[in-house]
């Protein structure tokens, strides 16, 4: 691909949820199950990430890097077990951060970079 493609564009917040640039795909603002348990929010974020990747023919196995944002970094404890289930041994590099979110009830968000093999 020689062009940059942007999809799921949000004009109000001025961002694209998916940006394809060459063989790299950048996926942002993956979150779901706001107000539910941290386990449900982590799984929900991975559901959204998976759904977005599927729209361009990829799966979670194509993810090479993730930034995991937590309201409370001590919830990092739950991430490893959920990743073992969801990523089936093909794990991306990842970082975890504690941050403030714009709304109460959001406890987890993930942004990811995926790679499309030729």
Keywords:
60s Ribosomal Protein L30, Chain: A, 6-stranded mixed beta sheet, 25% helix, single chain, 6 strands, 118 residues
Tell me the overall shape. globular
Query: Runs with pLDDT <50, length 5+?
Result: none
CATH level 3 topology:
60s Ribosomal Protein L30, Chain: A
The separation of the N and C termini measures 10 Å
**How would a textbook summarize the main sheet?**
6 strands, mixed
Order of helices and strands: EEEHEHEE
What's the CATH superfamily, by name? Answer: RutC-like
List the strand order in the largest sheet.
Answer: 1-2-3-6-4-5
Alpha-carbon Rg, integer: 14 Å
Which class best fits the helix and strand makeup? alpha+beta
CATH class: Alpha Beta
**Overall tally of domains:** 1
Relative strand content? 35-45%
Overall strand count: 6
Work out the helicity level. 10-25%
CATH architecture: 2-Layer Sandwich
Q: Whole-number average pLDDT?
A: 95
Q: What's the helix count?
A: 2
Q: Would you kindly provide a written description of the structure presented here, covering whatever features stand out?
A:
Pfam families: Ribonuc_L-PSP. This is Enamine deaminase RidA, house cleaning of reactive enamine intermediates, YjgF/YER057c/UK114 family. Helix 2 (76-87) links the parallel strand 4 (63-70) and strand 5 (93-98). The protein has one domain (4-115): RutC-like (60s Ribosomal Protein L30, Chain: A, 2-Layer Sandwich). It has helices at 38-54, 76-87, and strands at 4-10, 15-21, 24-30, 63-70, 93-98, 108-115. It contains two helices and six strands, in the order E-E-E-H-E-H-E-E. The chain has a six-stranded mixed sheet with strand order 1-2-3-6-4-5. Helices cover 25% and strands 36% of the residues. It is an alpha+beta fold.
